[in-house]
Design goal:
Blueprint (H helix, E strand, L loop, with lengths): L4 H17 L9 E6 L3 E6 L6 E5 L6 H14 L22 H7 L12 E4 L3 E4 L3 H8 L5 H11 L10 H9 L4
Antiparallel strand pairs: 1-2, 2-3, 4-5
Length: 178
């Protein structure tokens, strides 16, 4: 039975969406075109990380299942930073405030929201880098910005020379406790 190429391409798109929604792909893939050879289909992607996936025609399997297996197999063969332990979650972080760049990169892949929350551990867990919340949390205070600045200035370690390393600079900016 001959299938309509547009129908097959639509089925590939649905399978890719399913794999993304099931979190089985580290990034979204979009179909550039689908070509058919005698015993296989070749999916050509709009992606620099994976250019193609070969879908062998296997009797008794649905087209959907063949595509699903081929794409998962192709992704599993990737190496380097695009493979990741499941417990680590997604492998890439992309950050920009430039809307034009954001729109451009989203033409190649979809990104999930991410907020980088760094914490420091010392007598508890605190936000880092140091900000007003960190100061109030660390010293169990409820300073406003001006009061916090004056408080921290009182903790700073002054030195007659220019700081020579990160530790001396930190002591000069926030004092010994922080």
């Amino acid at each position: 039975m001959t299938r309509d190429p547009a129908t097959e391409e639509s089925e590939v798109r649905r399978v890719l969406d399913e794999l993304w929604n099931e979190k089985l792909l580290p990034f979204t893939l979009s179909v550039g075109k689908l070509t058919k050879e005698s015993d296989e289909y070749i999916i050509h992607f709009h992606d620099s990380r994976i250019s193609t996936a070969r879908v062998p025609l296997i009797e008794g399997l649905s087209f959907r299942d063949m595509v699903r297996a081929a794409v998962l197999c192709r992704v599993a063969k990737m190496s380097g930073p695009l493979s990741w332990p499941e417990k680590l979650g997604d492998a890439h972080i992309f950050n920009t405030d430039d809307e034009e760049i954001w729109n451009y990169v989203n033409g190649f892949a979809s990104f999930r929201p991410f907020i980088n929350r760094v914490k420091a551990r010392m007598r508890g867990i605190f936000s880092f880098p140091i900000n007003l919340h960190t100061i109030n949390q660390f010293f169990d205070k409820s300073f406003g910005l001006i009061a916090a600045r004056r408080f921290i200035e009182g903790l700073c370690v002054s030195s007659p020379t220019e700081p020579r390393n990160f530790e001396e600079k930190a002591l000069a900016l926030v004092g010994e406790e922080l």
